[in-house]
Amino acid sequence: MPKARRLRMVRSSLMQVCDVFAGMGEQAFAELLKRISISRLRTYQIYEHVKLRTRLTKLNTESLRKAAPKLWPRIAGQDSDLAADLAQAILVSHLDMIIAALDALGIEHQDGFFSKDADLSAQLSGDWQQAAYDALKAKFPSVVLAFYLNHLGVESGRATELFRPAE
């Protein structure tokens, strides 16, 4: 089999951020949108970008909450740009949780950010998602924690299926 074709097959078996949102479901998606901090979007200078991507004339917590039913079909339809921007908005709103998760997993980072070319195979092996979830579930909202652990799996290339935490 030609090398390029093999790479395409491998890539298609990996999850994408849209798959995480879709797998978690519409109710979890709406809950995640409610937990976006508008002030954090401004701090990290992504407010205008998220506003444009969501096609909202006014971006605030109420408009995001009301937009969830209109944004969901775009996510379900694999709008990867929207999914990436909403994921970024959710994650910058919960950097304290990300720092705690990376610390629990033993991943070196700087204020919640780690090198994209870091080899995380040792830290992200075995039942790493459940172990991190169990360590942090009492401190952080479960829907956001589960989303981040799935997102980390996607971004690290380790996720082939949705992580559903065992309570």
Which structural traits does this protein have?
disordered N terminus, about 170 residues, globular, mainly alpha
Task: Detail the topology: elements first, then pairings.
Layout: H1 3-13, H2 17-24, H3 26-34, H4 38-43, H5 47-54, H6 61-76, H7 80-92, H8 95-105, H9 128-136, H10 142-155
Quick summary:
The chain has helices spanning 3-13, 17-24, 26-34, 38-43, 47-54, 61-76, 80-92, 95-105, 128-136, 142-155.
Provide structural commentary.
With 167 residues, the protein is mainly alpha-helical. The chain has one domain (15-155). It is built from ten helices and no strands. The N and C termini lie far apart (43 Å).
Query: Given the helix and strand composition, which structural class is it?
Result: mainly alpha
Terminal-residue CA separation: 43 Å
Low-confidence sequence ranges: 1-13
| Secondary-structure element pattern, one letter each | HHHHHHHHHH
Please tell me the total number of domains: 1
Rounded to the nearest angstrom, the radius of gyration is 16 Å
**Oligomer status:** single chain
Shape: globular
